[in-house]
Prior knowledge:
Blueprint: E1 2-6, E2 15-19, E3 29-39, H1 41-47, E4 64-72, E5 84-88, E6 97-101, E7 105-107, H2 114-117, H3 121-134, E8 142-146, H4 151-162, E9 166-171, H5 174-183, E10 187-190, H6 196-202, E11 206-211, H7 218-224, E12 225-233, H8 246-251, E13 255-258, H9 266-285, E14 293-298, H10 302-311, E15 317-321
Parallel strand pairs: 8-9, 8-11, 9-10, 11-12, 12-13, 14-15
Antiparallel strand pairs: 1-2, 3-4, 3-6, 3-15, 4-5, 5-7
Helix pairs in contact: 3-4, 3-9, 6-7
Keywords: NADP, Oxidoreductase
Pfam family, one: ADH_zinc_N
InterPro entries: ADH-like_C (IPR013149), ADH-like_N (IPR013154), ER (IPR020843), GroES-like_sf (IPR011032), NAD(P)-bd_dom_sf (IPR036291), Quinone_OxRdtase_PIG3 (IPR014189)
Amino acid sequence: MRAVRFRFPGGPETLRVEELDDPVPGAGDVLIDVAAAGLNRADALQRRGRYNLPPGASDIFGMEVSGRIAGLGPDVTGFRIGDEVVALLASGGYASLVAVPAGQVLPVPSGIGLLEAAGIPEVAATLVSNVVMTGSFREGETVLIHGATGGIGTFGIQLVKALGGRVAVTASTSEKLAAARALGADVVINYTSENFAEVLDGIGGADIVLDTVAGPYLDRNLRALAPFGRIVTIGMQGGAEGTLDFAKLMKKKASVHGTLLRDRPPWQKAEIMNRTRDLVWPLIETGAITITTDTVFALSDVASAHAYFDSGNHVGKMILDCSR
């Protein structure tokens, strides 16, 4: 099979498509003939040598795919050869074939093509596990999402609105804020010229802050919270260390959570995927959530895809067509 690996950490030019042995599905696995793979920030961090893979994970890039079932391992039920599916992976998605535990595989939502479907599982599962499950989102609450126009932002705005919430977002340009507003964001904040903590504090605070920055944002995230609010940190773009004022935390009766999705055990991922299917798939199929795809690159052009991702100019998901 064709698959993307790298020989040493660095820029997009380090990525190479190689010929490797086909994977064999083990007990409880399905083999997927990959149509497309989604590109995520963790892929860029892995390329730079700044992301430790979960134990036992392949060094092939890619955390989410769409495709067709090509084989079934022992003890797998509920799938047939040829079924169109999406899957959440620990790694291995930038390839023409991948084996994955069956609990991490879902049918493609009806009305969605295979290429755009590749951008669904990682963002949908991330939002459900962190906003709904860990963050205990309730109808009517306000969610602050840092990064308005990436995959998490464009999907998260629509999900929170569809669930009856209010959304505030941060971004660096007026164009990105306009795109977020068009997707349904209620409050848009240019973090280069505005203090998001002051803006949120002025409107009653956020019940949940979905944080991808960490370090330097910790104090401002806490200030932005409403009483009994929850900070859920899923990324460390700003650094791994910050200062926490426990007096402020206690006065607000607030909580801080740090989570990762990629290194969870398969049984937890299966729970999250089941919850995602039940909650999100109907919203996609009725059009309450639309899939925002920026660009589709050929797998053979993976270096250009990563270079464009690094530029930060994309709005929504970037996809690799693994048939090319």
